[in-house]
Amino acid sequence: MPLDDNKKMGTGLLILGFVFLFMGVILFFDANLLALGDVLFLTGITMTIGARRTFVFFFKRKQLRGNLFFFGGILLVLVRWAFVGMILQVLGFLNLFGPFIPIAVAAMRTLPVIGDILALPVISPLVDRIAGSQQNTDRRPPV
For residues 26, 32, 36 and 39, what is the CA-based torsion angle, rounded to 10 degrees? Predict the structure, then answer.
């Protein structure tokens, strides 16, 4: 299924949002870059999945804590409390998008280069722990 123009632009805005957020963190929590990254990220999500689905996703009753943390963090970044705001945003992001992490890790493991890196003995247990997957490391056959 080909992507339409809105989804292509939305994906580009999502990537730009992550780039600006990363640069804002690297440059000692620069509030301007973080705020720009937040705006690009939210705009990218809206363009990628649509305004209605974005609204429904962010305003589910069971995700109230994640929404409060995420949008509270954005508000704190906008009022120049960048460090505290980013901590709240990360907590909210993990709360909102946590169920998608195992799916993303499983998809990344199928990619040619990234999958090989994630399969390294040092990295694999760490990625398994982050993804929340329970792999049987016991090599004995079941009884």
Answer: 120
Answer whether 0.85 is exceeded by the pTM.
no
Structural tokens at position 140: 């004995």
Tokens of 69: 């943390």
pLDDT in tens, 1-58: 677 899 999 999 999 999 999 999 999 999 999 999 999 999 999 999 999 999 998 8
Distance between CA atoms of residues 37 and 21, nearest Å: 5
Spatial distance between the Cα atoms of 29 and 81, rounded to a whole number of angstroms:
9
Label residue 100 by pLDDT band (50, 70, 90): confident
Tokens of 58: 């962010």
* CA atoms of 97 and 90, how far apart (whole Å): 10
Q: Which of 92, 100, 105, 90 is nearest to 24 (CA)?
A: 90
Q: Are 30 and 24 in contact, with CB atoms under 8 Å apart?
A: yes
